[in-house]
Amino acid sequence: MIPAKTSSRKAFTLAEVLVAVAIFVVAIFSILELVNQTLNTVRAIQRQTPDLGALAGRTLVEAPVPEGELETGITDPIDRDFGKNLGADLPIYPNAMWQREIFPLDETNGLYQASIFVEDEIVPKNKSIPSKFVEYELRFLMFRPDLAEAELGGGDSGTGSTGR
User: Fold this and answer.
1) What is the pTM of this model?
2) Where are the domains of the chain?
3) Which residues pair with 104 in a beta bridge?
């Protein structure tokens, strides 16, 4: 008698197939989320926003009046990088402007509070969408005994401390 051949076909069970499909779906959605985050990052990089740190740095190193432009009160500095601050022909931020407010906390020692205010108009490429105005503000303390000396020694008691 010849033994009957048993067919030993290998196959996946339904549970194994469902687990594989679930892993595949999770992997696809993870990849799509990663692509979406990358596209959002690229969009954010393409839209240049004014660098508040650079404006604060200019304030910290700028010479006081009469040699420079640094003085207490609210000022609109002339800046070639900003279109609305009498910028150059091709400013980096054509629809933006900035102001600086400096007021003394202790004028005799040269301790000041400085605030940088930036107004930026975001003009979308699609003209049917209205422009959006964005305001940024940065406040910091600065120690500038040279500014205090220039304002106190120059016969000028400063333009005062105007608050916002």
Assistant:
1) 0.59
2) 14-46, 50-153
3) 112
